[in-house]
Design brief:
- This protein has 10 helices and 17 strands.
- Helix 4 packs parallel to helix 5 and helix 7 packs across helix 9.
- It has 2 domains: about 130 residues, 3-Layer(aba) Sandwich (Udp-n-acetylmuramoylalanyl-d-glutamate--2,6- Diaminopimelate Ligase, Chain: A, domain 1), CATH 3.40.1390.20; about 160 residues, Rossmann fold (3-Layer(aba) Sandwich).
- By secondary structure, the chain is an alpha/beta fold.
Length: about 325
């Protein structure tokens, strides 16, 4: 699993425009590292309570905090700044385009703490910043496989090298579905139950086909044939046909593959010459869509068969009683 770090400079580069962030002072601290998706409102810290001050994250100073700061006498304010800024704070963001006292700017610059300002309201900035940080620091892993959007279902094809994953994905693209990633898929857990997959930037929208070489799917099939990322809805494990193995023929039992503690429905598809894998994958995706909607054809058929067997058994018992 990748452990990420985010510098203040990178935050400005990626979010500065959208969040209307400007650097007021502290350019020497732009390499300060943000290691947490959490943010803090340091009102209590400025009031003097530092016992549980979460200093190792972005500090947001809104109207309330700034009004309190401006209400302090200059000497007391300087003392409060000094006590707060002695901690290793990645950066401070002042919202609502609040004017910043000169002594605050001077102290931040002395301690190499970047002081940023935005015209956004505090609630709006916090919402956007939380969304960015949660996504940035979300757990990630890389898996070997191919991710394709099939009928709106993120379908992750897995299996040993040479089993036919890329060839199957290529046929799916030719049939109108969309490629997300080939060979290396980066999976990100964005919630307790959700994974999204994407391709590394270096090989984005490229596919390797043995005997042909590297294909650029976007150039060959157009922009409608690719998608940047997709939620992973099912895993299809392709494996060479094993005559000694009993494969699922009814679909009554659910199987799952676990990534980053997230369970994803899994289908094991045996590969054999003559089998049309692309159609089988399409049917698996459509079947999972039905299951997600609360309809399981296999269970419904099983229930009808059991009901019919129960009726026939009851009729048989009744006939025996009459004959007796």
């Amino acid at each position: 699993m990748n452990i990420k770090e985010l510098t203040v400079a990178s935050l400005l580069e990626q979010c500065g425009k959208d969040m209307e962030l400007e650097l007021v002072t502290g350019d020497k601290g732009l390499k300060n590292v943000i290691r947490s998706a959490e943010i803090t409102r340091p009102g209590l810290a400025f009031a003097g309570y530092l016992d549980v001050f979460s200093h190792d994250r972005i500090q947001i100073v809104g109207n309330t905090e700034m009004s309190y700061i401006r209400s302090l006498p200059a000497e007391e304010r300087a003392r409060r700044f000094e006590r707060v800024l002695q901690f290793e704070i990645p950066c401070i963001i002042v919202t609502n385009a609040n004017p910043i006292p000169e002594d605050f700017i001077e102290r931040a610059n002395e301690h190499n703490v970047p002081l940023l300002r935005t015209a956004l309201m505090t609630t709006r900035l916090v919402s956007q910043l939380n969304a960015f940080l949660e996504r940035y620091f979300a757990p990630e892993i890389q898996v070997h496989g191919v991710l394709v959007d099939v009928f709106g279902m993120g379908t992750l094809l897995m299996g040993e090298s040479g089993v036919g994953k890329s060839e199957c994905a290529l046929e799916l693209v030719e049939r109108g579905h969309r490629l997300v990633a080939d060979d290396i898929v980066i999976l990100t857990r964005i919630s307790k139950y959700d994974l999204v997959g994407r391709s590394p930037e270096l090989i984005k929208y490229h596919m390797e086909i043995r005997g042909v070489g590297i294909l650029n799917i976007e150039m060959l099939f157009g922009v409608a044939s690719v998608i940047q990322e997709k939620r992973v809805d099912l895993v299809i494990q392709l494996e060479p046909w094993d005559e000694s193995r009993e494969y699922d023929r009814l679909g009554l039992e659910e199987q799952y593959h676990t990534f980053l503690d997230v369970q994803v429905p899994e289908y094991v598809i045996p590969v054999q010459p003559g089998r049309n894998l692309s159609i089988i994958v399409e049917m698996a995706a459509l079947t999972q869509r039905l299951k997600n909607a609360g309809c399981n054809p296999a269970l419904e058929l099983d229930a009808r068969v059991r009901a019919m067997a129960t009726q026939q058994n009851a009729r048989r018992i009744s006939d025996n009683l009459i004959d007796g």
